[in-house]
Amino acid sequence: MAKTPVRITDVILRDAHQSLIATRLRTEDMLPACPDLDAIGYWSLEAWGGATFDACLRYLKEDPWERLRLLKAALPRTRLQMLLRGQNLLGYRHYADDVVRAFVAKAADNGVDVFRIFDAMNDMRNLRVAIEAVLQNGKHAEGTICYTTSPVHNVAAFVAMGRELEAMGCHTIAIKDMAGLLTPTKTATLVKALVKAVKIPLHLHSHSTSGLAAICQWKAIESGCYLIDTALSAFGEGTSHPPTESLVAGLRGTPYDTGLDLERLERVNAYFRTVRKRYHQFESEHTGVDSRVHVNQVPGGMISNLANQLKEQGALARMDEVLLEIPRVRADLGYPPLVTPTSQIVGTQAVLNVLTGQRYKSITNEVKLYLQGRYGTPPGVVDEGVRRLAIGQQPVIAHRPADDLKPEMAKLRAEIGGLARSEEDVLTYAMFPEIGRQFLEERAAGTLRPEELLPPPEAQAAPCYLAPTDFNVTMHGETYNIKIRGAGHKSEERRPFYVYVDGMPEEIMVETMGIVPTDVSSEPRDPVGAPQPNIPVSASRRPKARKAGDVTSAMPGTVVDVLVSVGQELKAGDPVLVIEAMKMENEVPAPIRGIVKNIHVKKGDSVTPDEALVEIG
């Protein structure tokens, strides 16, 4: 048998921590491992794209472009790979072609060597401009097939996609099994069909969610796929990927031997095992095998998001209802693969359907855009009743969605103005206008502060001003046990409190809206007896929703836009607010006909379902 060594892409710097610790791994914890990572001999390291751009800005307060430059400098011998959402780039909407070309060019300039390009709908039209831009910049274009199962997905359709990607000029083709749905038999069948149909190499990306990914890797290799994604075991398995070391050890002495240094892999893995402990507060509860994925097809990261949303509503017990509703919504929408952004689109709508008690009573803006054809052509037939509920008689486009978009770069430069020090900053604003602008403003003011990392549960050495306190809180009919472990340093505006909620470590950021006056003699004291400074207390000043004309949010979220003013006359169903939840926007309608009497929110406010946000009478 001819020797065909397997080449490995390690996802330790991107998908591994995105899957298991909510994309929170900081650049400062990546860089010390880079000399060893660079010496291993990987085919590539996936280090950018996906949710990392968003997480850098939103939580870590890092410039994602600077992260890319630092990693490129620290990994000079290893190709850096990114995940790009085709015409969506790294955001959740389609961008004009000039933005796509500018983004690819700057990503290439700053260090990306391999671009894995996918579209959530598998609509090849949405990949064309990004692939062209990668080729124009002299980089490696990896076209992607998003693997899923449904009545409308089959091997013949996937092979047709592979041929089209090869015709576009792609250097390799990735089979992206984001939910871990491949079985060994299906893997062998698909890989053999693609090997026969195309001349370019195949690359397998499969998550361990269902417990089958390692076997699927072996069947793929036997069938002619010699590029494989793995994750160092410190961040492997669960909703992540099969361990790198295991595949290297398993292929030793075979014609597929990777040639990688197992001892060096173990050394760098030991480093990441220690680093992971710093991020214990972000650990996913879904770290083992979840066979439900074969029914609901929800990627592991999406399950974690759903759990958090339901927990915020005191409705975690309804998770099984949501997981049953997701396949129904997916069928209504024509069986899109569940990967960003369609996983969020389908998942959020399923949550709304369950929590409102009526299917499609509240429909997100993204579902409406989807049903207008603004994300591309669905793989299957859409339920026309759902389409009418969402968009009425509005036309459905059949052409490439980005054909309707005018060039945007000049407009974006004008909007962000002097806050942008470079073209990269303009692109940061383009990807995420709200959090991008906030990041650039905080950078200009010198106030960038990453979220705090909690000390490990067994450690009590962190700044602490409170003696441990234990109490129960009841919300929405659910009771939670709260144990206060301590408090961080107080600024004029906010203060972190470290707590356990039903035994799970959490950080609560309390913002100052009023000060509870305390007498020093009665103040709580820390373990060594120092007086506790005044505790800032943040309480909602909005009235509770009680009347038929009270406008409420179906889910906890953030106000993106207020569409009405006091005194405005509305009809029932007129849009009043836009709320963002789970990264999806939901237009909140007027519940009755009447006049806007009071508005209790503004853009940027956080809201909960029991509050009256706008009063109509």
Describe this protein's structure:
With 617 residues, the chain is an alpha/beta fold. The protein has 21 helices and 22 strands. The strands form five sheets. It has an eight-stranded parallel β-barrel with strand order 1-2-3-4-5-6-7-8, surrounded by five helices. The N and C termini lie far apart (80 Å).
Comma- or semicolon-separated keywords:
four-stranded antiparallel sheet, single chain, alpha/beta, 617 residues
Helix content class: 25-40%
The general outline is globular
Number of strands: 22
Q: What structural class is derived from the secondary structure elements? A: alpha/beta
Catalogue the unreliable spans.
Answer: 460-467, 514-539
- Strand percentage lies at 15-25%
Overall pLDDT confidence: 88
| Terminus-to-terminus distance | 80 Å
Oligomer: single chain
Name the strands of the widest sheet in spatial order: 1-2-3-4-5-6-7-8
Biggest sheet features: 8 strands, parallel, barrel
